[in-house]
Task: inverse folding
């Protein structure tokens, strides 16, 4: 019962995280007349403050010393920080300039771009259905390019920057809060410097727009951190396959807002391109679920086979068993003998794992 409650809570956390990410296009227009770069700088500065408070509450600081001593991780964190800067900045600009639908396309095709990068950069092998999904995604981009009269650059840059960000984070292997804290710490000084420069030149909107506008700019830290905290809570409670399905909630909500709320145009060629993307994602999802089900069934079969296999007798135990009928090849000297103490049999090995070696994911 407790396990079901945990999974139900994890599902709610996951829906909350991806739901907030999907509805965030409603927030960025509230920050006008601030420009995209000023909003981005505020997001970096205030996110670090919110995440620092969260880490203080959960008392997770030991990773800082390890990160500072590891130059490779520092380099990867810098790459992640640079790519998420591009991703965040372009997304804010796209939403506030009437490109919500095109931005949603970037997150729809992100799984396809991630798979393609795995093949090109990591030498991963694809199953036939995955190849079909990636090929369908490429055709969709061509159809959309014809419809737009140019490649969908906003979608492509968002997809590739986020895929690169994900690859860097995979190599770093840090928790969500810790990773965001490190990334925003890298970005904090240039972001704060830019905000101070705006204030010195009289171009800052933080105080010029009134207290309410300043509060909304400061709230960018909460808007960034809260979905991430919910995602972390979901990741430890629900299977990855469930998270993989939930990830489509965000671009679905974004697409719906773009069409229904922001009233962005959807000519037939754009519908055709999106339909091909959705077909590719359907193939990808079906293949992932089928593979997960097959692997689970195979693991259960192997466990059942191992449990049913007869256990071979231990030769040492057989030799020490007084009921054994095997003849003793050693000649017995005549006369009575006094048996000595029986040798002690080895006990079961201690398989308890040292808590210090356990890894929390």
Result:
């Amino acid at each position: 019962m407790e396990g079901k409650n945990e999974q139900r809570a994890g599902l709610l956390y996951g829906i909350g995280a991806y739901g907030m990410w999907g509805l965030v296009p409603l927030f960025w227009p509230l920050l006008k007349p601030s420009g995209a770069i000023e909003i981005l700088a505020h997001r970096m500065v205030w996110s670090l403050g919110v995440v620092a408070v969260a880490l203080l509450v959960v008392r997770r600081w030991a990773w800082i010393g390890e990160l500072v001593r590891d130059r490779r991780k520092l380099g990867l964190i810098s790459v992640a920080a640079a790519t998420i800067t591009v991703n965040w900045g372009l997304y804010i600009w796209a939403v506030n300039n009437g490109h919500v639908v095109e931005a949603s396309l970037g997150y729809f095709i992100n799984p396809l771009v991630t798979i393609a990068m795995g093949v090109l950069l990591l030498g991963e092998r694809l199953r036939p259905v995955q190849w079909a999904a990636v090929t369908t995604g490429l055709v969709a981009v061509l159809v959309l390019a014809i419809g737009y009269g140019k490649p969908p650059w906003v979608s492509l840059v968002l997809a590739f920057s986020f895929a690169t960000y994900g690859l860097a984070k995979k190599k770093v292997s840090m928790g969500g809060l810790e990773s965001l804290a490190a990334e925003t710490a890298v970005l904090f000084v240039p972001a704060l410097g830019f905000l101070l420069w705006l204030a010195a030149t009289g171009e800052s909107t933080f105080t010029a727009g009134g207290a309410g506008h300043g509060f909304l700019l400061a709230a960018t830290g909460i808007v960034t951190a809260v979905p991430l905290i919910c995602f972390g809570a979901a990741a430890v409670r629900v299977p990855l396959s469930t998270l993989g399905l939930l990830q489509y909630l965000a671009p679905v909500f974004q697409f719906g807002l773009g069409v229904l709320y922001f009233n962005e145009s959807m000519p037939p060629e754009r519908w055709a391109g999106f339909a091909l993307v959705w077909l590719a994602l359907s193939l990808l999802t079906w293949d992932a679920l089928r593979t997960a089900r097959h692997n689970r069934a195979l693991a259960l079969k192997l466990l059942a086979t191992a449990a049913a296999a007869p256990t071979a007798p231990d030769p040492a135990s057989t030799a020490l068993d007084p009921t054994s009928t095997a003849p003793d090849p050693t000649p017995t000297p005549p006369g009575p003998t006094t048996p000595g103490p029986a040798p002690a049999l080895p006990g079961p090995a201690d398989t308890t794992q040292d808590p210090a070696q356990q890894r929390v994911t």
Q: What stands out?
A: The two ends are 23 Å apart (CA to CA). The first helix runs from residue 2 to 23.
